[in-house]
Prior knowledge:
7-stranded mixed β-sheet, binds ligand T4K
Amino acid sequence: MSDKQTLNDLAVFGGPVAFEEVRHVGAPNVGDRARLLERINAALDRRWLTNDGPYVQEFEKRIAELCGVRHCVATSNATIALEITVRALDIQGEVIIPSMTFIATAHALQWQGITPVFCDVDAESFTLDADRIEELVTPRTSAIIGVHLWGRSCRIDKLTDLAQRRNLKIVFDAAHAFGCSWNGEMIGGFGDAEVFSFHATKFLNSFEGGAVVTNNDELAAKLRVMRNFGFAGYDNVVSVGTNGKMSEVSAAMGLTGLESLDEFIAVNSRNYRQYREELSDVDGVTLLEYDDAEKQNYQYVVLLVDDQITRATRDQLMDLLWAENVRARRYFYPGCHRMQPYDSLYPQPAGRLRVTERLVQQVLLVPTGTTISSQDISTICRIIRFAVSHGAEINRLMSAEVGTHAG
Ligand code: T4K
């Protein structure tokens, strides 16, 4: 890639694209391919492809061990995992969640007739603001779902205390936080249950997949039944249920990925440090820090763009990167409360989600993971630096144009 020397060198203004092939935020990590295919072949030979097969059981055992919890119940995805967790815990009425999350957190509730009540995040951790929860509790409130956003853990102690005091269930949506710790303890054992996602875009993936982890024996037993249509043995349906089972091919992928877990984390960590280093002198672009004293998976590199300083807006920077074939993402613009059906059903009073409203205008996630090279990162950082150094001009030129991004 030739460096950008003038504005006309930017692809958005007709210059050559920086990357011939698109660079994604969520490009999957793939472990040892030969090992994966070996496992898949063995499953085919066994003629056991799903329904609590040997790979699923092994995967559950490994996840539970890694998190130091008694139970792991693997599922077809994290959305179903959230849904059955909520149902198995008999959560009803209203549940307090952050709006600053992937839409699945809200949908898992609304889907079963439970009202998500959106709470602001605090300005430091960007996770549920424990000091704002109490004012949202009503007689209908039955639970809190905290989200370990981008792998940075919630204020678990404060949230757990509050839940206990108000007699509420507490679940953590840990979709981003597999492999992370809080106060030296692995995420997975907190609250009534925690939910992981092993979707293709997660640093450990099982194509599609999720899991509920818990230390509650009774809950785990209920979840196992619920993910399998309510069956507690042949011909014996004991509760309402759904089909939330993980397949053997998914578990084979998960198990193979687990064997490369340390490598995935090392690569993510290296990428994060490189971005931090190379963007450190770009005014107005702040890289969200991870606490190195904890275990982290570093799977998201999150930039906060302050357009008072950069002059070019976050969206202009994103459009400009997309034109260069860098698919930077605005996770989770515009906030669940501004998406449907929530915007119509539960319009939010002005100021209630002040930090969220600001944050969704600033976040920009850039590609990382095993498919992104050190050279790619340098190129992306150079484009950002160049764009910010010409921010005012870019703003003027791009304000006259229609955005190119898809989201
Ligand atoms: N709770 C939270 C807090 C979550 O973030 C999520 C999911 C959930 C719950 C629910 O988990 P699951 O039910 O999905 O297990 C993606 C993922 O689909 C979603 O799993 C994830 N969070 C969310 C943060 O990211 P999108 O709508 O951005 O997906 P998409 O198709 O745009 O893919 C993201 C990027 O990855 C794109 O740039 C393309 C690239 N990609 C994607 C796939 C699937 C690839 O390069 N290869 C691939 O195979 O939601």
